[in-house]
Amino acid sequence: MCDQLINIRQLQSVQNAVARLIFRLCRSDHITDALISLHWLRVPERIVFKVAVQTYRALHGDAPQYLRQFTSVADIPSRQRLRSSTSDDLCVPAVRLATVGRRAFSVAGARVWNDLPADVTSAPSLSTFRKRLKLHLFPLSYPGLVL
User: Fold this and answer.
1) pLDDT, tens digit, for every residue of 27-61?
2) Cα separation, 103 vs 34, whole angstroms
3) Sign of dihedral through CA atoms 108, 118, 120, 10?
4) Residue 129 pLDDT greater than 60, yes or no
5) What is the pLDDT of residue 92?
6) Handedness of CA 16, 18, 20, 22 (dihedral sign)
7) Does 26 share its domain with 48?
8) Which end of the chain is more exposed for a tag (fewer CB within 10 A), N or C?
């Protein structure tokens, strides 16, 4: 977990450096406004974005076959009487190794997908999905930002 946080911090540092280079900002200048004007998500939300897009593609048959086999809609017989029976939640497989297992596409993709609102997951096309997803994630990247 610690290595993962270090990698995310390093990637965020690279993203910030690129934004500073584009806007010719000093190291001491605030970077948030530059990232917002570039319409860039911060690294943790960008990771969620990429996983969600791959999951959407896998569910709609656009992803490679090896990814499609890891996405399955939760279709449990006892669920038919529940409100969730109309949702498209994915099955989150149990994991044995908490450190590695949670990062597997079958687990991470299902968790990210299940955390998204229905208006995002019900998008009719990939481009619409990407737009709705970014609109959903942008306020999470920059809390307090009014769109």
Assistant:
1) 999 999 999 999 999 999 999 999 999 999 998 88
2) 30
3) negative
4) yes
5) 83
6) negative
7) no
8) C
Q: What is the number of domains present in the chain?
A: 2
Q: What is the pLDDT of residues 71-118, one digit of tens each?
A: 665 555 554 555 545 567 888 878 776 667 777 888 888 999 999 999
Q: Tell me which residue range forms the domain holding 15.
A: 1-40
Length of the chain: 147
Residues 120, 94 share a domain: yes
Angstrom distance (rounded) from CA 134 to CA 51: 13
Q: What is the largest CA-CA distance in the chain?
A: 59
Residue 19 corresponds to which amino acid? A
| H-run or E-run covering 132 | helix 126-141
Place of tokens 């406004």: 33
